[in-house]
């Protein structure tokens, strides 16, 4: 059997809460200033440390350093990747800004690797729009700080949160077993595989986690089953398809021995319960492809609840 392969993307926005030190550092960037943190030994760290490595006390003294500095070491990137500071070849460099005692890692737009050297002088090129993020520094470029190299010095309020988009593109190639499962979904069937040792049926097919052997016999299971456990989603997040509250449950399909996670709709969240009998709601047949998304969600089937003893060992 030919196996399936497709490009996939994992994407989310990484959100980080900042404390008082990094919050002031980011606010400084927004104002066109670079702030370092002075520790008990007198050294100035850029970016500032939140806690003194010697005394472990919070760092409270922030001092402004120059937007220009010296390249201490570097490497060259011929093929920039998505999400990196520049979309053309550039240098990654450790740069010690004047007034600082530690180096900052950032990109240098030097035009070519032959223009890069250890000891070269570079200055910050600020982003056209600054929002209080490390990306307010677009990159570094060769040269000394000029009179217009900084901002207006108005840091404004401390930045409390920064959000960074994360994107990972990759190609997923399925196994023979997974390909059979996905092709079954394209036909409106749910197909698992049975372990030759313990006889349990796994959906989607996988190596039996109990026996450690490959599952072999293909088994078609029902598109209805029993809610074994569930959670009510009450917290909103970026990219969310549904408005909370809603339910994500583990559904033990009839004929399977391990539940699958899926949405439970068509019933108030407060009425979802262990043992609730549910049935798959498929998308329009014209939209079916080799994907689990062919099943839009599950909803109550109208059958009587399953006794706890029938699914207790599948929790």
Write structural notes for this entry:
This is Zn-ribbon domain-containing OB-fold protein. InterPro entries: ChsH2_C, ChsH2_Znr, NA-bd_OB-fold, Thioester_dehydratase-like. Residues 63-126, 218-283 form the ChsH2 C-terminal OB-fold domain. It is a single chain. By secondary structure, this protein is mainly beta. 7% of the residues lie in helices and 38% in strands. The chain has helices spanning 20-30, 176-186, and strands at residues 5-17, 34-38, 44-45, 62-65, 68-77, 90-97, 104-108, 121-126, 137-142, 161-173, 190-194, 201-202, 217-221, 224-233, 246-253, 260-264, 277-282, 295-300. The strands form five sheets. A five-stranded antiparallel beta sheet has the order 7-6-5-8-9, with no helix packed on it. The longest helix is centred in the N-terminal third of the chain and has 11 residues, at 20-30. The radius of gyration is 28 Å and the shape is elongated. It starts with a strand and ends in a 15-residue tail after the last strand. The model has no long low-confidence stretch (mean pLDDT 93).
Short structural summary:
By secondary structure, this protein is mainly β. It contains 2 helices and 18 strands.
């Amino acid at each position: 059997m030919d196996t399936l392969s497709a490009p996939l993307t994992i994407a989310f926005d990484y959100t980080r809460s900042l404390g008082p030190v990094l919050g002031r550092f980011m606010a400084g960037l927004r104002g066109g200033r670079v702030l370092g943190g002075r520790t008990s030994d007198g050294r100035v760290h850029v970016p500032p440390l939140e806690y003194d490595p010697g005394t472990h006390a919070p760092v409270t003294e922030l001092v402004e350093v120059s937007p220009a500095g010296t390249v201490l070491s570097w490497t060259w990137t011929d093929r920039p990747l998505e999400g990196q500071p520049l979309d053309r070849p550039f240098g990654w460099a450790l740069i010690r800004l004047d007034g600082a005692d530690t180096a900052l890692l950032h990109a240098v737009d030097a035009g070519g690797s032959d223009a890069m050297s250890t000891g070269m002088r570079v200055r910050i090129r600020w982003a056209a729009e600054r929002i209080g993020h490390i990306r307010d520094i677009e990159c570094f470029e060769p040269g000394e700080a000029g009179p217009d190299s900084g901002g207006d010095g108005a840091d404004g309020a401390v930045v409390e949160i920064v959000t960074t988009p994360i994107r990972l593109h990759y190609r997923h190639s399925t196994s023979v077993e997974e390909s059979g499962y996905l092709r079954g979904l394209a036909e409106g069937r749910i197909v698992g595989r049975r372990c030759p040792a313990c006889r349990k049926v796994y959906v989607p097919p996988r190596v039996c986690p109990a026996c450690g052997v490959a599952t072999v016999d293909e088994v078609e299971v029902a598109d209805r089953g029993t809610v074994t456990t569930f959670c009510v989603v009450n917290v909103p997040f970026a990219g969310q398809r549904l408005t909370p509250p809603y339910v994500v449950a583990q559904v033990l399909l009839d004929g399977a021995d391990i539940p699958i996670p899926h949405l439970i709709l068509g019933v108030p969240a407060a009425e979802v319960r262990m043992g609730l009998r549910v049935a798959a709601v498929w998308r329009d047949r014209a939209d079916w492809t080799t994907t689990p998304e062919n099943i839009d969600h599950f909803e109550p089937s109208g059958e009587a609840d399953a006794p706890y003893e029938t699914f207790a060992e599948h929790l």
